[in-house]
Amino acid sequence: MRFLPILTACLSLGLLSPQAWAQQSGDAKQGAGLARDWCASCHVVGTEPGGRGTDSAPSFARIARDPAKGPDYVRGVLNAPHPPMPFMPLSRAAMNDLVAYFRELAAKP
């Protein structure tokens, strides 16, 4: 019972809300590195023009800014890839890092 005041404080500050957990999980910098290593041969993964991607794959920025393609969409595509996208066995941590990178891209103007 002595943890109840701490738990109450965390809840009131939003520190244990689902949104806070979603924002805290994953490292966008690690996700950007994964994207460069695994995805840049087909997708433009950064925000700079002239990336290496192809015309047949959407840019990460375009995917990130599409309101219909949130974190669940990204996780779904990564879990069940489809041709021509290759199967990439990613850990949960790596997937969270990529999702964090997409969130970062979505927030950029």
What keywords describe this structure?
mainly alpha; Cytochrome Bc1 Complex, Chain D, domain 2; globular
Q: What's this entry about, in short?
A:
This protein has 109 residues and is mostly helical.
Fold and architecture overview:
With 109 residues, the protein is mainly alpha-helical. It is built from six helices and no strands. It has one domain (25-107): Cytochrome c-like domain (Cytochrome Bc1 Complex, Chain D, domain 2, Orthogonal Bundle). It is globular, with a radius of gyration of 17 Å. α3 (28-39) packs across α6 and α5 (71-79) crosses α6 (92-107). The relative contact order is 0.18. It is 55% helix and 0% strand. Mean pLDDT is 77; it is low at 3-23.
What is the secondary structure topology, with strand pairs?
Blueprint: H1 4-13, H2 18-24, H3 28-39, H4 60-65, H5 71-79, H6 92-107
Helix pairs in contact: 3-6, 5-6
